[in-house]
Structure to design on (284 residues):
């Protein structure tokens, strides 16, 4: 596979940013293979993502970061430069529903997700054999409803032990504590049905069926301390009609959930998602 550097920038919008950055890369002999820019006129913020052929630069990512730092300071940039040869470490969390986990594991084995799955954490034992068949460590951390802090202290220990860059809640049916949300801000990805908050609580698809909805969907988003209110990465829908049963809606919903979660995770891993307040800019 080709070796790339990815430069991602967010900064106050002003004249000359694209010219300055492009000229810098050209000055290092760099070949830009992908370029995306967006100006948010309401906030006056500029967003950029460049993919650079690493072999054309002829220097390490660390050296390139040092060389680019004065430009970043000049334009007051929030920025990162990542090396595609350094794969992100991902921890998956799951409860009893398997569809999202199974889909992510398949895509991972098919090399559709450029990451290392370092571990799977679950509050149930149901998925152990599936996960261990893939050669991935499985950690059962039961959650006591009377005192969840013990379980989440262990979850945090396991995540740190795995040196996780990203956490994915692949239908993990527990609410993460604020401390974990804050520690991994912008690095915890969740999936939920798009009915929230209209169809909150148990059996959302059955509630939707009773209301005669015509569209069902799912939302992939970053986790924040406010439940199901973090920046949205990706959404999709499936049209339904009066002839569909609640079980049909559940089946359609699972298909949408796993697809949306996989897309959102892939875009995150490829540095395509830039958080802007409680929104995102996604260069998909």
């Amino acid at each position: 596979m080709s070796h790339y550097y990815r430069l991602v920038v967010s900064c106050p919008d002003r004249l000359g940013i694209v010219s300055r950055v492009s000229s810098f890369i050209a000055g290092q002999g760099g070949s830009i293979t992908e370029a995306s820019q967006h100006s948010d006129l309401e906030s006056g913020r500029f967003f950029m993502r460049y993919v650079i052929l690493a072999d054309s630069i002829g220097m390490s990512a660390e050296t390139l970061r040092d060389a680019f730092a004065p430009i970043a300071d000049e334009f007051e940039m929030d920025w990162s430069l990542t090396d595609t040869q350094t794969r992100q470490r991902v921890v998956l969390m799951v409860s009893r529903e398997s569809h999202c986990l199974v889909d992510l594991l398949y895509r991972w084995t098919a090399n559709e997700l450029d990451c290392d799955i370092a571990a799977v954490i679950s509050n149930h034992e149901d998925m152990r054999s599936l996960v261990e068949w893939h050669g991935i460590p499985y950690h059962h951390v039961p959650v006591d409803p009377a005192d969840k802090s013990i379980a989440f202290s262990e979850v945090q220990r396991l995540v740190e032990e795995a040196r996780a860059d990203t956490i994915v809640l692949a239908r993990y049916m527990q609410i993460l504590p604020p401390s974990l949300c804050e520690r991994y801000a912008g690095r915890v990805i969740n999936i939920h049905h798009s009915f929230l908050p209209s169809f909150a609580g148990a059996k959302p698809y059955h509630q939707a069926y009773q209301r005669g909805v015509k569209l069902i969907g799912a939302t992939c988003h970053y986790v924040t301390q406010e439940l199901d209110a973090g920046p949205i990465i990706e959404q999709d829908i499936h049209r339904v009609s009066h002839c569909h049963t609640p079980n049909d809606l559940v089946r359609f919903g699972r298909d949408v959930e796993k697809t949306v979660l996989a897309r959102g995770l892939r875009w995150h891993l490829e540095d395509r998602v830039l958080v802007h307040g409680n929104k995102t800019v996604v260069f998909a």
In short: The chain is about 35% helix and 30% strand. Residues 94 and 122 are 5 Å apart (CA to CA). The chain has a mean pLDDT of 94.
